[in-house]
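Project standup — Tuesday

K.O.: blocked on the structure for the chain from last sprint. Re-posting the sequence here as requested.
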Amino acid sequence: MPVAPIPAPLDHLGARPFSFYPPILNIDHNEWLYRKSTWSEMLVSNARTGMEVWIPRRFLGEISSVDDPVVIVGLVKELEYRAGSIWPHQRRVIEMPAAPASNVERLPAADLPAPIVGIRLERSEAAIGRLIGIVMVTAIVAYVLMISTTRDGGFRLRAVMQSDTGLTARDDYFAVVRRLGDPAEDRWSPETGVLQYRALWYPQQGYYVILLGADRKEMRYIGTLSKDWKTIHSVPTPGMAAMLSQLPKF
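H.V.: unblocked you, prediction finished:
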């Protein structure tokens, strides 16, 4: 009987801090340090509060190969801290109570819904003609929208940015400025946890360059978002694309 592989341990991280993705619910600060492990669990401590928790090995996923701006340890399930322990988070679904069977039995036969009878539709030549007309109109509208978008530069920009931004996870603010020039706007996300985001707006290109780090002096490039806050490019780090797609606009 095949045995599931044991997730990679965290002991090789040493004293380097790391963050879980997705973050553990009910814990504000997402920066951790490895302490010790057993065959089934890992003991980690919160770098800010010192709180220690045991994480079952079966919940640990991939560890990012790039540690800029911070090491990311993936979790295979969304976890929550409850009653002093770590548990899988369960989203509650409210079920509507079913109507009592006795009420249905008391309904007269005339009030019961009629049985659903399958109706077979015959495709006529007129229906096919209308379908072809709708397809042609849709294609013309899509072509006009594509031309107008290309004139504004947005369509051409997205096609280029999806293939290559020229920026890597090693690039900091000064590397971005050397390549793209000074941004028109420089924004910081609210300080709600250990990690903080920085958005550099380039209106001529029509995109935001996003930096991430635990320290404002150590911010690194993680991806590029369009003016509509849609992901155009992200660094090849496990979980980074998902993190960008869930980033609230600030």
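K.O.: great, moving the ticket to review. Residues 149-163 have pLDDT under 50 and may be disordered. Residues 125-152 form the longest helix (28 residues).
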